[in-house]
């Protein structure tokens, strides 16, 4: 079986009726480059919501000052900042973004258990058989 395509590390902003906006990570960080492709470097989506405009960056994108500025220029109230850690340095970064962007920051630390995956998922060990 051959599968062609690109995977993207992605923020998706939903509304009750479906998808509002999609942001693909600009540049995968470190070993992520083995899995994910580059996003659209000129695209910083902001979605309207009942609580105000929502935008955000993914993980280490939040450390890129000009990416934050590009997003700030679009104006938003809520900033999404999903990341894979919750260390004290990251918490300081989230606080900095809230102050710098004059916004609320939603910091989501992603977590999955083995039981969250489908039972019929093909794994590396299955391929060795």
Helicity level? 10-25%
By DSSP (H or I, 4+ residues per run), the number of helices equals: 3
The radius of gyration computed from the alpha-carbon positions, rounded to a whole number of angstroms, is 17 Å
Strand content: 15-25%
Topology pattern, helix = H, strand = E: EEEHEHEH
Main beta-sheet strand count, sense and barrel state: 3 strands, parallel
CATH topology: Nitrilase/N-carbamoyl-D-aminoacid amidohydrolase
Overall shape: it is globular
Q: What is the SS-derived class?
A: alpha/beta
Distance separating the two termini: 15 Å
Low-confidence runs (pLDDT<50, min 5 residues)? none
Count of β-strands: 5
Q: How would you summarize the topology of this molecule?
A:
Blueprint: E1 10-15, E2 18-24, E3 54-56, H1 65-74, E4 78-80, H2 88-101, E5 104-106, H3 124-127
Parallel strand pairs: 3-4, 4-5
Antiparallel strand pairs: 1-2
Key words describing this protein structure:
22% helix, alpha/beta, globular, 129 residues, two-stranded antiparallel sheet, 3-stranded parallel sheet, Nitrilase/N-carbamoyl-D-aminoacid amidohydrolase
